[in-house]
Structure formats: structure tokens, C-alpha cells
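Progress narrative, Year 2. Work on Glutamate receptor NMDA 2D-like protein from Labeo rohita advanced from sequence curation to structure prediction during this period.
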Amino acid sequence: MSSFTFLITLQETGSIFLQFSSSTALQLEVIFEVLEEYDWTAFSVVSTRHHGYQDFLSVVEGLTDGSFIGWEKKSVVMLNLTDDPGGARTRRLLKENEAQVEREGHCVSVLLIRSFNHSFTLPPST
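Result:
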């Protein structure tokens, strides 16, 4: 969870591209501040097992376990996109999570993590 990335581009001889980005922890702090502002205390976590997911889950635990807010983590959905090329299993997992939350009458905010090496889109459900 570094706070910046240093990239050297090979497009021009001797050129350097410096990219700064906020850490995962800082991004999650901001997300939880927004959730708190709107009193959305119940949430689910959606992640893949790509590099960094354990740090992501640890930061979520750290922010919620030590808080006086009363965060309620409803579920953690781990997606395996390589074994689900059409997205059917992913859609099913997300729908099951949504149905569980709706039955309990809670407003849920879903936190997403996206790896730099992998992104995905779900085909429209039929």
C-alpha cells in the first residue's frame, strides 16, 4: 500500500513519468467518512484475490473494528474472474448478497477493489 507510484516510460529516451496516487488506506478512510455522513453503516465488501486484497481487507477491518460508529459488515464476496469468463457466477453471488440485505431491510454500500492488472465488466443480466 504505497502512497505513490514511480513509473519510467520508454516512449522517449530519458523521459520519466511520475504518478502520485493516494494509498488504499486513505481512499478507504474517505469512503467510510462519506458512508458515516449519510448514516450508511451496513456494507458489503467485494474483492478479487489479486495482489493487495489482503491489505484492503485488513484496512477495512481496522477502520470498522476500532470505531464507535457501529459498522455492520454484512458479507465479503470474493470473485474469481478467471473461472467465470461469462460472469454468470459473479452475477449470482452479487444477487444473493443483494437479496440477503434487502430481506433484512438494511441499506448497504458495497466497497469495490480493482487491481491495476485486472478489471472486469459484467454482461447485462437477462
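Residues 24-112 form a domain with the Rossmann fold fold (CATH 3.40.50.2300). The radius of gyration is 17 Å.
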